[in-house]
Amino acid sequence: MTAPKPTFCRLRSHDSRLQRAWQGWRRRLVWHDGRSRRVQRRWGWFWLGLLTCWLTLWLTFIPSSGLAQTSSSNRAAQSPVVLDGRVLFQVGNFGNFTALERAAIVNAALEQEVRSPQPAVIEVAEENQQTIIRSQPNDRTLLTVTERDVLQGTNPVSQGRFWSRLIEAAVRQGQLERGSAYFQQALVFSSVVLLGAIAIQLILWVGERFLVRQLARHLGHPASSLHPWEQPAKLLLHLALIGLQAGLWTAVAWYVTDLFPEARSWRYRLFNFLTVPVVSLGESNYSALQLLLLLAFTSGLWFAVSGLTRLFRFYVLARTGAEPRVQELLAVLTQYVMTFLGLIVLLQIWGLDVRSLAILASVLGVGIGFGVQNITNNFISGLIITLERPIQVGDLIKVNELLGTVKRIGARSTEISTFDQVTIIVPNSRFLESEVINWSHGDPVSRLKLAVGVAYGSDIEQVQAALLEAAKSHPEVLVKPQPEVWFQGFGDNSLNFELLVWTGEPKKQFRVKSDIYYRIEASLRRNEIEIPFPQRDLHVRSPELKQLLASLQPPSFPSWKPQRSISNGNKSSDRPIPTLPESPDGFAGATVTMLALDDSSHSDLEALITTMRGPKGLKIQDRRYRLNLYPACFTGAEAVEWFVQTQNCTREAAIQLGQSLIEQGVIHHVLDERPFEDGYVFYRFYADEENANAENADGENTDETDISDR
Which element (helix H / strand E) includes 167? Predict the structure, then answer.
C-alpha cells in the first residue's frame, strides 16, 4: 500500500516543474509575440514594396504581351497596328508588303484620320473579291483584310467588321482627347494625382523616420537577443520604402502619360525599344528589360541568401555550441551553395538553358585568367583559408605591418580590427603569399620579452630578484612556465638583461608589457638599482678645421702707434689719428680703398680723418630721432656719399672704408656695435664722444633745474 505514494509524489513534483516551465515559456511567448508582431509588420511593409515593384515590372510587359505570339515564326510574320500608343490588332504579310510595312502604312492612315475634324465613320466594303476597311467621310482606304489576317474560325468579312469597330472607337477617342475641354480636364486630373503622390511621399518619409526610431528603441539595446538584426532590419525597411516610392511614382507616371495621347505614344515607343530582343541564347530571345529584371532578381536572390544565412547562423548554429570559427565556416559554405543553386533555378525559370552558357563560360574563363586574375586569386585564397583555417575569426595576427584581430573572413577579403578600432580590409591572397604571425593559432600561450639595462657596478643577483619580483606580481603572467631572467651581455653603457614571461591572452600583451615595465621601474628604484643613460664626450682634432676658422676671420689692419692728438677747439682727444698729405684740391690723398688702408702709413689715415672732421668734411651735428637727441653724429648715407665724391670710389668700396674705420676704432654707432651701413644710421667719432657726453650731462642738469623750479 505504501508503494504508490512515492510515485504520486514524483508525479506531482514533475507536474509542478512542468507548470513552472510552461509559465516561463508563456511569459517568453508573450514577450516574443509582441516583438513578432512588430517584426511581421515590418516584413509586411517590405513584401508590400517588393510586390509593388513586381507589379510595376509586370505592367511594363503589357504592351509587349500584345505583340507576343505563340511562336517565333508568327511573331516575325505579324506587326501591330497602333494608334496613340494603344495596340489595336496585328497584321501579317500581303503580297510584296511585309507585315512591318503594312503596319506602318495603316498607322500613318489612322494618324491622318484621327487629326481630321470630321467625325469618324468606318465601314467595310468588298471590292474585287477583297474585304476593304475604309473611312466614309474622307473616302480613304485604311486596310485590306487578307487571309493571313483572319483568325481561325472566322472569315475576312467578319474579321473586317470587328476591326472596323475597333478602329472607329479608337479614332473617335483620339479626336476627343485632342479637344481643348479634354486637355483641361486631363491637366486637372494630373495636378490632383501629383499632389496626392507628393503627400504620400511625405507620409512615407515621416513613417520611415518613425519606424527607424522604433527599430533603434527595440533592437538598439546590446543586451537584446535581436540586437544583431538592427542593421539588417533598417536595411530591409529602407528597401521596402524605396520599393513603395518606386511603385508610387511609376504608377503616377503611367497614369499621367496615359491621359495625353502624345505622351502615351512616346511611352509606347520607349517600351517597344526596351522589349525588342537584343540577346539570343539558344531558342530564346531576351530584351533589355528582361535582362534588367533578371539582374534585379539576381540581386534579390543574393540579399535573400544573405538573410537566410544569418538566420541559420544565429538561430541554428549558435545553439549547437560549436566554436565561432566553425560557425563562420559553415555559414560561408551554406551561402555559397545556396547562391549557386538559386542562380541555376532562377536561370531555368527564366527559360535560359544552362547548357547554352558553355560559350559564355569559356569566354568568362579566359577573362578570369587575364582580366580578373587578382579577384580569382583572392577568391581561391579565401576558400583555402576557410577550409584549412590558418587564421580564424577572433585570432590576433600580424601581416607585414598590420596588427589586429580578425573580425570576418569573406570570399575576397578579410577584415582586421586594429587596437585603434580601425577596420582594415586585407585581400585574402596576402595571407598565403606573405608571412603571417598568428598568436592565437593552436596554443594561445605566448612568451613576452622585456629588455632591461642597469648601470655597471650593480649587484646582478639583486637585479635578477627585482625583475622576477616585478614579473610575478602581475596577475596576467602565468605561473607555469615560470618567468626567467637572462643576462644578455655587456653593453656600451649598461648591463643588458632580458625578462621572459608567459601569458595566455595574446591580445593583452601590450598592456601586460606596459604594466610590467611600470613594476620593474618601481622595483629597481626600491632596490636602489640605477638605470643608466648613454653619455658621449666629443673631442675634435682637425688641422683643416683650424684653417677654415682662420679663413673666416676678418682681415686685420696693421697696428700703428699714436704720434699726436687731434685738436678739437680747446679740447683734445687722447685717441691718436695719423695725417695724410693734402692734395692740391684740398682733400687728403687720392682714391682710398681697403688695400690703401692696409699698405699706407698711419699718417695717411690721420689725414683722412682730419679731412672728414674738417670744414669740407662730413656734416657733424646734433640729430633727433623719435624724440631722442643724439649729439655730434653723422649718418652712414652721408659718409658713403662723401667717400664717393672725394675719394673717387664706388659705393661698395665706400662701405668697406667705413667698416674699416669702425674696426680701427675711429668711429662707432651711437647705440650699439653695429657694422657700417649705407642708410639713415647715426655714427660718431670717438674724438667727439667726450663732447657728446658733456652735452648730455648739461641737458640732464638743465631738465632737473627746470623740474626743481617748477
Answer: helix 156-177
Alpha-carbon span 289 to 298, nearest angstrom: 14
User: In the prediction, which pLDDT does 697 show?
Assistant: 55
User: Within its chain, how far is the Cα of 670 from the centroid?
Assistant: 64
E strands present in 147-221 = none
Q: What is the Cβ-side half-sphere exposure of residue 45, based on CA atoms within 13 angstroms? A: 21
Q: How far is CA 176 from CA 29, 89, 167, 263, 284, in A?
A: 63, 21, 14, 16, 41
pLDDT at 13 over 70: no
Strands (E), 54-162: 78-83, 86-92, 122-127, 130-135, 140-145
Q: Locate 147 and state its grid cell.
A: 487571309
Give me the torsion for CA of 250, 253, 258, 261, rounded to 10°.
-140
Given this model, what pLDDT does residue 368 score?
A: 62
CA 695, CA 689: separation in Å to the nearest integer? 10
Report strand pairing: 628-635 vs 667-669.
unpaired
Average pLDDT, the chain: 75
- The pLDDT assigned to 18 comes to 45
Q: Which three-class secondary structure state does DSSP give residue 584?
A: coil
Cα dihedral sign, 270-273-276-280: negative
Q: In this structure, what are the phi and psi dihedrals at residue 278, rounded to the nearest 5 degrees? A: -120, -20
Compute CA 95 distance to the chain's CA centroid, rounded to the nearest angstrom.
66
Which residue has cell 529584371? 293
**Type of residue numbered 342:** G
pTM: 0.41
Handedness of CA 62, 66, 67, 73 (dihedral sign): positive
Owner of C-alpha cell 649598461: 494
CA 1/CA 10 separation, integer angstroms:
16
Question: Taking a C-beta distance cutoff of 8 angstroms, is the pair 605, 578 a contact?
Answer: yes
Residue 2 to residue 457: CA distance in whole angstroms: 89
